[in-house]
Amino acid sequence: NTEEILSRVPGLNLIRRGPIGMDPGLRSYQGNQINLTIDGMRMHGACTDRMDPVSIYIEPANLNSIEINQGASGAYSGSTIGGSVNLNLQKPDFSCKHAIQGKYNSSFQSAFRGLSQSLILDGVQKKFAWRLSGALRKAGNYTAGGGQEIRYSQYQKWNSALAISYKIKEYSLLQVDALVDQGRNIGYPGLSMDVGKANAAILAATHTLDGKQGNQLRTK
Questions:
Q1: How confident is the model over 159-199, as pLDDT tens digits?
Q2: Cα dihedral: 29, 32, 34, 35 (round 10)
Q3: 150 bridge partner residues
Q4: Given 17, 50, 105, 182, which is the most exposed site by the fewest CB atoms within 10 A?
Q5: How many CA atoms lie within 13 Å of 125's alpha carbon, on the beta-carbon side?
Q6: pLDDT at residue 211, rounded to an integer
Q7: How far apart, in whole angstroms, are the C-alpha atoms of residue 176 and residue 166?
Q8: C-alpha distances out from residue 64 to 33, 36, 72, 169, Å
């Protein structure tokens, strides 16, 4: 998942409170000390215990890259002392060789009877390009060493993202992104409460203008 990818980034650490929703930090800076964004967009979680960081709404199926800026260099997305972590979403590709192409992934983990599936579809037609991705994850209680069952560690969630790009001219591009993530029955063994549901609906519109000198103007 996305949190496993984040754990491999040098200087970035994660606080695990449950099976999903690990809270990222940069060199011991956490919470409001760093800016955690999606495509540069800032969002604020609804839970005071930080059980719903922004990273919970992104799946590898719709993740393109991760940008890390430490210290004051991360202030482009707002004031910060620790830096910034920006999760860039995948964009439609006008260079696709086929009108429609797709990819499907599936995995199973026996320790918690976890099933993970994802589907990606890409398409292009003249001035339009689009990308659709979906992911479904479901798991039961985790079984530790010796066969001990860790109660309230179950979860299930699904995630879908749609991006549509329209090439107005060779130097002008309009793109609309929509992302929906819904979690259900998420257990947190280390806390005194669970999450019945955790939903997010994110919409963005971007206009990119490329000048003759290679300058770019982006508005969201």
A1: 999 999 999 988 889 999 999 999 999 888 877 778 888 88
A2: 160
A3: 142
A4: 105
A5: 6
A6: 58
A7: 9
A8: 25, 16, 24, 25
